[in-house]
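Hi V.,

Quick status before I head out on leave. The structure for the redesign project is tokenized and pasted below; the design run finished overnight.
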């Protein structure tokens, strides 16, 4: 009985949060399209080849002190291995690809549950 009540509350909270996750997914997809557009436009304007800026490059250009602060906090708080090979390898991928994959994962997690009626004859 208690388990059903906890489960019902959990499903209610998830039903409220699911549209918010879908909205966040749409915003992330919009950011991915905008970043891809800027990278392709930069390439068409005069660069020699496709230049896709990584997420680390964007973060360094927007907030260099914050980027260094996060690096120092992760290296001192967790372990230097957590920053240099692990997080920097994630931040080294193109920014549009990061946002597109993140958007797809959030959209997959927030999809509508498929109802299966086992009592259909």
């Amino acid at each position: 009985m208690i388990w059903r009540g906890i489960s019902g509350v959990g499903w209610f909270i998830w039903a409220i949060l699911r549209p918010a996750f879908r909205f966040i997914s749409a915003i992330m997809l919009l950011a991915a399209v905008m970043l891809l557009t800027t990278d392709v436009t930069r390439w068409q304007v005069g660069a020699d080849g496709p230049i896709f800026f990584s997420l680390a490059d964007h973060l360094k250009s927007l907030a260099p002190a914050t980027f260094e602060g996060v690096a120092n906090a992760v290296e001192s708080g967790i372990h230097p291995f957590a920053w240099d090979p692990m997080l920097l390898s994630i931040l080294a991928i193109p920014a549009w690809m990061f946002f597109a994959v993140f958007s797809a994962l959030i959209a997959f997690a927030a999809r509508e549950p498929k109802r299966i009626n086992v009592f259909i004859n």
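Above is the designed sequence. DSSP finds five helices and no strands in the chain.

G. will cover questions while I'm gone.

Best,
W.
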